[in-house]
C-alpha cells in the first residue's frame, strides 16, 4: 500500500478519494473539545443546543472536522511530506453532527519545483469533506513540500528509517536461511 507520494507522482488535476470514511461519535467530539479546551456549549451541552440554537442539537467542533479530513488525506497526499507549508484557506460550509460519517477527497491544483533545493517540490491541493448524504461540510487548501525521488533514494527509499528484524534466541531469522 502506498503511503504518500513523491513530487513526480503528483499530476495537476488528479483527484484522490480518501478511504475509509469516519463516523463522528459524541465521544470523539467531546474528547476533542476537552483536549483542546474548547468548552463552547454548542459542542458540549445538549440542552443548550436543543433549546437555544438553530440546529436543535450539538454541532461537531469545526477543528475536529478539519483534523479528520487532514488525517484522511495523509496516505494519499502528505505521507512522504517534508513539511506542511501553509493552510491557505479553511471554510466550514455546513454543520457536522454526531453520527455523521465524513468522507474526503483532494484535488491537485498546482505543483512547482523548489527554487532553493533541487530534491523537492511544492504541491498545492484542495480537500473537500462531505457527509454520508454528499453534503459538503468543509473545504481547505494547503501547500505541502514533498520530496522528489532522488531525495527518497538518498534516505533509504520507500520506507526510510524502517529497521530490519534481527535474528536472536526468540526468532532464528527468515525460514530457509
From TrEMBL:
One Pfam family this sequence matches: MC_hydratase
Top-level taxon: Bacteria
Chain spans, region Disordered: 152-177
Alphabetized InterPro entries for the sequence: HotDog_dom_sf, MC_hydratase, MCH/BMMD
UniProt-recorded name of the protein: MaoC family dehydratase
SUPFAM superfamilies: Thioesterase/thiol ester dehydrase-isomerase
One GO molecular-function entry: lyase activity
Amino acid at each position: 500500500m502506498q503511503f504518500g507520494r513523491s513530487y513526480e507522482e503528483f499530476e495537476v488535476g488528479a483527484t484522490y478519494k480518501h478511504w475509509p470514511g469516519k463516523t463522528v461519535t459524541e465521544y470523539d467530539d467531546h474528547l476533542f473539545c476537552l483536549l483542546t479546551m474548547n468548552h463552547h456549549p454548542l459542542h458540549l451541552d445538549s440542552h443548550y443546543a436543543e433549546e437555544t440554537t438553530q440546529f436543535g442539537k450539538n454541532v461537531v467542533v469545526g477543528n475536529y472536522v478539519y483534523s479528520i479530513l487532514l488525517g484522511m488525506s495523509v496516505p494519499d497526499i502528505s505521507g512522504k511530506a517534508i513539511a506542511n507549508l501553509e493552510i491557505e484557506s479553511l471554510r466550514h460550509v455546513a454543520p457536522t453532527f454526531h453520527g455523521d460519517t465524513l468522507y474526503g477527497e483532494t484535488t491537485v491544483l498546482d505543483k512547482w519545483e523548489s527554487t532553493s533545493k533541487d530534491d523537492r517540490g511544492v504541491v498545492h491541493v484542495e480537500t473537500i469533506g462531505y457527509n454520508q448524504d454528499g453534503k459538503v461540510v468543509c473545504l481547505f487548501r494547503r501547500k505541502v513540500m514533498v520530496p522528489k525521488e532522488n531525495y527518497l533514494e538518498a534516505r533509504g527509499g520507500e520506507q526510510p528509517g524502517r529497521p530490519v528484524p534481527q535474528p536472536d534466541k526468540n526468532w532464528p531469522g527468515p525460514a530457509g536461511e
